[in-house]
Amino acid sequence: MDSASLSCARLTGWTIGAVVLQILGLSLFVLGFFPVKPTLHGVSGSESYYKPKCDDVNVGQDSVANHRNLPPEELRSLYKELSGIPPVFDRLIVMVIDGLPAEFVLGRDDLSPTKEMMESMPYIQALLSSGNAIGFHAKAAPPTVTMPRLKAIVSGAIGGYLDVAFNFNTQAFHDDNLLAQFSYIGWKMIMLGDETWIKLFPDLFTRQDGVTSFFVKDTVDVDFNVSRHLKSELSADDWDLLILHYLGLDHVGHIGGRRCNLMMPKLKEMDEVIEKIHTSVILDDNNGSKQTLLMVVSDHGMTDNGNHGGSSYEETDSVALFIRLGGHVPKSAPLKFQTISQVDIVPTLALLFSVPIPKNNVGVVLLEILDFLTGVLYVSGLIRNVWYLFVIRKSYPLCNQYSNVYIFFLKQLNFIKNEGQCPNYKIENRNINRSKKK
């Protein structure tokens, strides 16, 4: 009897121990695979234009609340004054081609796109070769699904795999982001296409027409519903930001993969949309007062089978094209396209439009896009980016996952110490030598 009781006690003990170990192992897996991403609360404002101190990264916070109560026009003027960098453009068109791999437009491994790809998008190729556009391989962080990638494109923050679950039930996005910054200065925004934008930013758009992204058999109506508004919206002058999110190419990939017989016609359709925007708005701006920037991006790429969500090269190789920079980017812009991080788009746009860089941004400004700035303004833009990354570093010193993003700028902290004495400088990390421009 005693022996049986002892065996039962041992069995109970082993069972309890096994359950505890299982719970610990599951907890370790969940915390490792779905880490809680630290974020800085609040939104960037006038304080972001003040130099942070090593012992206090909240310099200028006392006046932020008062500044946010300013009317949009006054706030816009304040940002322009504090920045010292005048807005380069007046309006922005963001065209998202869902699932478009950069390889289709820019090629891969220093090789040009296939002849079939180039013939399907002749207008884009002409813009790139003439220097009227500049393209990048924009590496998307996993998970490569739409919702977290849109968050990264507008906030500059890197999400986690937990966002995969929220991708099917998108909630309003409350972290600091470019759209919020634009709304503070009175921008009017229009959204056409993937309804994910409407779910992320409810009540933000002056006009909107969303379509669901989960009916993947539809490759026609999802894009027609966007394009049918083009004529009226491109001729309107009551908006500052126009978002066009085309889903058709992603759906083509889900149906038949990269080599689907519907792929080339869809690429041709997207090329024609870009041509229409460029000829009817951007080129026409030469005769008007408003200057418009067209940015064509994809949220992620796709595998040969048309899938996405993982971390393979094919899934993370998204594209970023800046069109209307012909008057600013040198005509000798290289056709060897660089690889950037998708989050680098955010600080670059913030500087181009003179708004604060969103608070949790970990991207770095694209030197090639800011190349037209004079020496002092160029360095001022870099310094502002340094300050943001410095604040994140000071606030979360153990967040080493961001180190590869800001290591370039940490090597240039002498800019902050000598911001008034930098007529000549060297950017070692990218092997670019610059002299102060005349």
Automatic annotation (TrEMBL):
Topological relation to the membrane, as annotated: Multi-pass membrane protein
Subcellular location: Endoplasmic reticulum membrane
Pfam families documented for this protein: Phosphodiest
Lineage top rank: taxon: Eukaryota
InterPro entries, per database record: Alkaline_phosphatase_core_sf, Phosphodiest/P_Trfase, PIG-G_N, PIGG/GPI7
GO cellular component: endoplasmic reticulum membrane
GO biological-process terms attached to the record: GPI anchor biosynthetic process
Transmembrane segments: 12-34
UniProt GO MF annotations: mannose-ethanolamine phosphotransferase activity
Record's keyword terms, sorted: Endoplasmic reticulum, GPI-anchor biosynthesis, Membrane, Transferase, Transmembrane, Transmembrane helix
Pathway info: Glycolipid biosynthesis; glycosylphosphatidylinositol-anchor biosynthesis
Record-stated family: Belongs to the PIGG/PIGN/PIGO family. PIGG subfamily.
PANTHER family with a match to the protein in the record: GPI ETHANOLAMINE PHOSPHATE TRANSFERASE 2, PHOSPHATIDYLINOSITOL GLYCAN-RELATED
The protein, known as: GPI ethanolamine phosphate transferase
Annotated source species: Zostera marina (Eelgrass)
Lineage: Eukaryota, Viridiplantae, Streptophyta, Embryophyta, Tracheophyta
